[in-house]
């Protein structure tokens, strides 16, 4: 089995979602008595926000690259981020990383194409949704023929605020869930989107297919499947206990 490395802490709640999903994915493929070889380098989502807010993408690249170097030193053979916002500098990270990286953006784009999706609503942090910085996410989709629609400016600000002050701290409220569902419903009615991209890895804490007016592209579920594929490869299941 290939040893995985993930950058955690960006934020802590999504790191837990990733760890659980990777473990469950490996067990589903190889049996309940098999767990992944996995190491976590915990950084800070708030440092990521500070770098992005200052437009210091060189600093962000250096900060994350140091994390990937630590993962490689711990024996990781394949690595990934566990957040969407740091993908702003993903191409730079690929060049600097000592190990191959698995992109969440590419994984979600591929899933959208496989589902025959024509138009998606993107929800995420302000940095992921902002017209000034969202090209790292929207361009791969539009290049694949999938139109990306954004909330309006006030909604972008509100979603960012609720992510940073609630979800990143593990706070889940019905009010925030209802507000996000309302945004999805408004954009769906106005723009006719097929699906919503949960483009922040904390969003699955409050959104899923059972509450959303349109089907969700769950970034955590989709990305972790790709990571399980990378970890398991052609490994055969062992006999049960």
TrEMBL record:
<dbReference type="Pfam" id="PF01177">
    <property type="entry name" value="Asp_Glu_race"/>
</dbReference>
<dbReference type="InterPro" id="IPR004380">
    <property type="entry name" value="Asp_race"/>
</dbReference>
<dbReference type="GO" id="GO:0047661">
    <property type="term" value="F:amino-acid racemase activity"/>
</dbReference>
<comment type="similarity">
    <text>Belongs to the aspartate/glutamate racemases family.</text>
</comment>
<dbReference type="InterPro" id="IPR033134">
    <property type="entry name" value="Asp/Glu_racemase_AS_2"/>
</dbReference>
<keyword id="KW-0413">Isomerase</keyword>
<protein>
    <submittedName>
        <fullName>Aspartate racemase</fullName>
    </submittedName>
</protein>
<dbReference type="InterPro" id="IPR015942">
    <property type="entry name" value="Asp/Glu/hydantoin_racemase"/>
</dbReference>
<dbReference type="InterPro" id="IPR001920">
    <property type="entry name" value="Asp/Glu_race"/>
</dbReference>
């Amino acid at each position: 089995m290939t040893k995985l490395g993930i950058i955690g802490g960006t934020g802590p709640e999504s790191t837990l979602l990733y760890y659980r999903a990777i473990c469950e994915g490996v067990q589903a493929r190889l049996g309940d008595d098999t767990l992944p070889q996995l190491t976590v380098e915990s950084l800070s989502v708030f440092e990521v926000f500070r770098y992005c807010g200052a437009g210091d993408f060189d600093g962000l690249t250096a900060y994350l690259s140091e994390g990937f170097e630590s993962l490689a030193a711990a024996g990781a053979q394949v690595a990934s981020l566990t957040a969407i916002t740091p993908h702003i500098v993903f191409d730079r990270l690929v060049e600097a990383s000592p190990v191959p990286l698995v992109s969440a953006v590419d994984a979600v784009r591929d899933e959208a194409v496989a589902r025959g999706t024509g138009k998606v609503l993107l929800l995420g942090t302000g940095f992921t949704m902002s017209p000034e910085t969202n090209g790292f996410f929207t361009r791969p989709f539009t290049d694949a023929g999938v139109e990306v629609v954004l909330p309006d400016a006030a909604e972008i600000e509100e979603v960012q605020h609720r992510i940073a002050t609630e979800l990143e701290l593990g706070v889940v409220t019905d009010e925030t869930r209802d507000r996000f569902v309302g945004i999805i419903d408004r954009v769906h009615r106005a723009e006719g989107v097929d699906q919503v991209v949960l483009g922040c890895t904390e969003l699955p804490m409050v959104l899923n297919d059972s509450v959303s007016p349109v089907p969700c592209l769950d970034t955590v579920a989709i990305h972790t499947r790709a990571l399980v594929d990378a970890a398991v490869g052609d490994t055969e299941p062992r006999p049960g206990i």
